[in-house]
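Input record (Table S2, row 175):
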Amino acid sequence: MGPTLILIGFMGSGKTAVGKRVAHDLGWEFHDTDLLVEQEAGSSIVGIFEREGEPAFRKTEELVIFRLLDGRRDSSAGTVISLGGGAITIHKVYRRLLKEKTVVLLDEDLETAFSRSQNGKRPLADDREAFGQLYAQREALYRAVADIEVQTRGKSVNQVAEEIVGRICRRKDSD
Ligand code: S3P
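Output record (shikimate-3-phosphate complex):
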């Protein structure tokens, strides 16, 4: 199985943009689980939440994550996976992430994350107070599964990607 790097973190922390950049720099494949959920459901995330609710969204999210991770067994390509910010709340996903070798947490300042999330595509980012509470509920989960934590405050996508690639290479050297 090829190397797998999994990006986690709250909504608006830059997982997709950074993940694409890291994948490009390493010459690896890139997968975004939000996009896979939309493809699987044939609907936007907002549409899924509106029509079927959050539990149905999480069910599809779990399905696409396990399909992706289990499908990697037969692949020798390197892969970067960007997970939706709430995937960590799915117990089976949380337990699986504990076993993965390279889980990278993007740690963004909450105000920046909130303002980036105001694009009409995130059903759980309507209200600033609820957004903060959600983060408080999840923060310990993110940190528990993370092998590498990267502070992204004030950094560009390229800077964060470079830092991740550097840290991955240093880890490989000391293996
Ligand atoms: C969610 C995060 C979103 C998306 C959905 C729910 C969450 O992904 O999966 O809107 O519960 O935090 P991003 O983290 O990519 O915004």
